[in-house]
Amino acid sequence: MRNFRLLVPLLAVLFVVLAPSVAAAQGDEVVTGPGFIDRALQSLLDGIQFGAIIAITAVGLSLVFGTTHLINFAHGELVTIGAVVAFFLNVGGLGLHIIPAALIAVVVGAVLGGLLQLGLWSPLRRRGTGMINMFIITIGLSLLLRHVVLVIFGTRPQSYREYDIQRAFDLGPVGITPRDLAIFSISLLVLLGVAFMLQKTRIGTAIRAVSSNRELAEASGIDVQRVVLVVWVLGGGLAALGGVFFGLTEIITWDMGFRLLLLMFAGIILGGLGSPYGAMVGSFVIGIVAQMSSLWFPIDLQNAWALLALILVLLIRPQGILGQRERVG
User: Fold this and answer.
1) End-to-end Cα spacing for the chain
2) pLDDT digit string (tens) for 37-85?
3) Measuring CA to CA, which of 10, 105, 231, 260 is 20 to 30 A from 268?
4) Backbone phi, then psi, for 159, in 5-degree steps?
5) Helices vs. strands in the chain: H and E counts, helices first
6) Whole-prediction pTM value?
């Protein structure tokens, strides 16, 4: 777990150091004044929406890590697969509306997550495969799935048929399109639903018990394998839904999930490892910092500043926002 906490900050340092100084090269200037406040409020709103999408995808990844301690680098490809499946159903021969296409994509993502648990991760655990070896397998699986999508989908960016161009509602100094408002509302409802499930249902209690102490939960009569399967199914479905939302707000590409993966890890670590609620909070912080940094710096560097914020927070609070202190030694 300590190694996982160090992973994203180290990658973030490299990313910030190696990122080109585009602002200096282009001579960008920071514009302040009355219009700056409006742009700041708009960036804040955009950051909250972006954070909600990161949160949906990161919660499933956090639950998988909490119950299995597996760092799943292939989670980003589940995001991509969800977006791509919805695209083919929406734009392909069936020509489904984006709403039923998205629902089918979520089911496909959930089924794929369950199949990966039953067909790959569970057999590996029964064979006593170490966590480092399984971590490397997730990297290989990520590369495999990503290039399968590349072969099927291609390199050309695509978009869904519906809700591509919309007129924004004017809410004082900010504006939001009906599409973005619907995405944020649904994302918030999904996150609240996950929180309710974790707190008020038997399977949610079992998930929290397994995340807290797997051996004690198994000794208490909890079917740990069933709980882990449910977590993988839930994680796959949430990743696919986040992929559809990300494709609606941005654009669909063959590597979109991979580009979002580091921000998912950042949100999880910033919020606190093993805490799904921390993953939600951390993801919103990452989304807001990423969007608001574009007020002063080129948009190409927004992820770098989000990861730099992660480093600064961990220097002050190493366990994350909602994480608990660990005893070392």
Assistant:
1) 14
2) 878 888 888 899 999 999 999 999 999 998 998 989 999 999 999 999 9
3) 105
4) -145, 160
5) 14, 2
6) 0.84
